[in-house]
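Exercise: predict the structure of this protein bound to arginine.
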Amino acid sequence: MLDLKSIIAKAISKATNMNEKELEEFIEIPKDTSMGDYAFPCFRLAKELKKAPPAIANDIKEKLEIEEKYIKKVEIVGGYLNFYINNNILVEEVLKEFEVKKENYGTSKIGEGKNIVIDYSSPNIAKPFHIGHLRSTVIGGALYNIYKYLGYNVTGINHLGDYGTQFGKLIEGYKRWGEEYNIEENPIDELTKIYIRINELCKQDEKVLEECRNNFKKLEDGDSYCTEIWTRFRNLSLKEFQKVYDLLGSKFDSWNGEAFYSDKMTEVVEKLEETGKLVESEGARIINLGEDIAPCIIGKTNGSTTYATRDLAAILYRARNYNFDKALYVTSYEQVLHFKQVFEVAKLLDLNEKYINGLEHVPFGMVRLKERKNVNKGRKHYKIRRLTK
Ligand code: ARG
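Solution:
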């Protein structure tokens, strides 16, 4: 490989009859690039040569033989000799290396033996794949490739939003009006319509809401009818999402979504109970996190679990199964508080320090389109899947 520092040292050594290795150690990289790419401080030789540094610089420069293809200019500034690299040689060098290494250009082994898990994309079943998910997919995918190139053992996880009380509602809506909607043809639009409709009804009728909660409870308990509908919605949604992934060439090593953790949350709750920090507040079970962060809700008033509890169970699972050195979460900055809370509570799970230190949220900004203020939010979804039709 081209080593310009040693080329310079060799030339100075020839001009002064001094030891090349020793001279090479004196060579500096100027802080200010206008002073050149390398600098040789001649005062280092003043004692031995019994001369003033500027005079030494002059002597060396006169005797210096260095090919212009490497160094285009040498200047004396004070007691320094400043060397300016000929950029063409660098370009040539990069292209040569590229020619040899091809797609392996830029790879390294710094990540060897280290595990990284990247949680990205992670859209929600029966809801539109919005622009925030698109960004997460692309940014997470880029991080995946970069870490892989650096030699890390990378696991890409699509932490699907396939669980939670909203599924109780969807099941209820489907039971009531499933026939009216063409779910197979247009799953996400139709399921969203059902969801909006049942939500309205819940607001008017407490009994319907109760039914929805029951459905979710049944789903949690493995009821076959509820599980069957849920599986169908999940599969239909995945088929839609896959169209986007095909366009982008996105791949995941794991599709373990929130539902995967349904039987893994008891351990989290037990561990938190042991710390004595899990307290009741207005019927819910929470962990207080001090003045600056809102408390983390672990269990809802009706006893069902939360998004945060599922993320805590996922941390335990990923620590054990992937032994991660780093666990990245790629979402929009809307979830900054969520991950702050989860990472704080994770400290109570009796995990090795290594895992706690490896947790990292990678937030990205929101996209603002002219006609819609905040396209990540609510129903104002920018329908990415239109691209796929
Ligand atoms: N499903 C979530 C959403 O759409 C993103 C999940 C991010 N990952 C996680 N482990 N919480 O907002």
